[in-house]
User: Fold these one by one.
Assistant:
Number 1:
Amino acid sequence: MPAVASLEELQAAQNDLTQLKTAQPEAYAAFSALFKKHRSIGYKNICKMLLGEATPEKLKGMGE
């Protein structure tokens, strides 16, 4: 399934990821492992929690 984002946006994100991996290899590896471990709940949900936009309860419609 093709991505909705433009090729330029995807390339910019890839460049940022490469820079982050170079600057913080241990942190990058830890986040990669976290995303792989919890892949089944969806990247979007993980990102919402990471950014402080949601809690597990809010994602399940139980919290405000």
Note: The radius of gyration is 14 Å.
Number 2:
Amino acid sequence: MQANRSRDTGPELALRKLLFARGLRYRVAYRPLADKRVTVDIAFPGARVVVLVDGCFWHGCPEHHRAPKANADYWLAKINRNMARDAAVVERLEAAGWRVLRFWEHEDFAAAAEAVERTVRRTAGERTASDECGHDSM
């Protein structure tokens, strides 16, 4: 269990490398909410966009998650709690005005990087236009 990382996982690093190559700059292990209980994998604070990269085992991927046979009751409860927490975190972030992009560790990161770039640039443009008009953006 000690070898399981909460940040800088292989999938996160792969996505971050692609985002950096596209000229995007971001914060890592960022806490976007005032209460500091929620940490996201990648954040673009100016655009108010967060990116979560979920592991198939820990977050209950419907396509790849396989529960261990040993101590199955414990793991089923653990993964279900993780999934409930994930849903609550997304809800809290969206309620606070953040756009949330979630990707599974098995997804095509080139396509994910494209989606992130498109969202960040569009959202940053919307916020800039709103700021120039003198309106509060959130």
Note: The first helix runs from residue 10 to 21.
